[in-house]
Amino acid sequence: MTTTTAPHFETEWAQWHRDREEALRDPLGFLSLTGLHWLTDSPDRVPGLPGTWWVTDHKVFITAQPADRLEFDGTRIAGVQILLPAEGAPGLHVRHEGRVLEVIRRTGRYAVRVHDPAAANLREFTGVPAYSPDPRWVVTGRFEAFEEARTVTTGAVVDGLEHHHRAVGVIEFTVNSVTERFVAFGTPDDLRVLFTDATSGVTTYPAARALTVGAVEDDGAVVLDFNRAVNLPCAFTDYATCPIAPEQNRLRIAIEAGEQDPALLGGRS
């Protein structure tokens, strides 16, 4: 474990934490979600939404009249609208007055995710619980690149879904004389990891936390600032489809740093 002597460590962390909470207050972000509705090949109404929705030949169909006030790409839907959301990507936005109806594709399944700026979860949000920042949790690790990038497949918080991650190597680090290794995703210029540890399901969210690592130094060194380990959207809402941590990234040690579980600590409505 490496310590840092930066005189403004706590101040910088506090600003980062405030910025993080402010981002979560986005009126159409994950805290605004009020529903996740899976579509079928049968034209049907979606609870609380105008129009008729279904899936055929990997296309999402919406039928609506101008009075339904559904808009896509700045134009009100009048008749049939066809959408082609990309697998695993942010969804396509259909607007209904102040709401965004996000059409997504996950593991070949299609859904409508409802963002409402008047959502109770957003209105009642008071912040993200977290461990107090501690410079001892700024750790130097060593990155070992794979000869070729590989795909790591994980499950998701929604049964039956999968996530496919571009893995580029492993990071090895030592905490309290215990050496751990986990798989890093992204690129050597922008590494990130999903992990669980001995706090998961106790004080932190059980499925995974995420840590942005950043770029690898010329000598292979990387800085792991676990004070900035964050929750995935699924820690805040039941309407997300987040990945779980890969088996290789389930650490034995307790990472008592970073964000804690809003549900366990009373911070999630």
From TrEMBL:
<dbReference type="Pfam" id="PF07920">
    <property type="entry name" value="DUF1684"/>
</dbReference>
<dbReference type="InterPro" id="IPR012467">
    <property type="entry name" value="DUF1684"/>
</dbReference>
<protein>
    <submittedName>
        <fullName>DUF1684 domain-containing protein</fullName>
    </submittedName>
</protein>
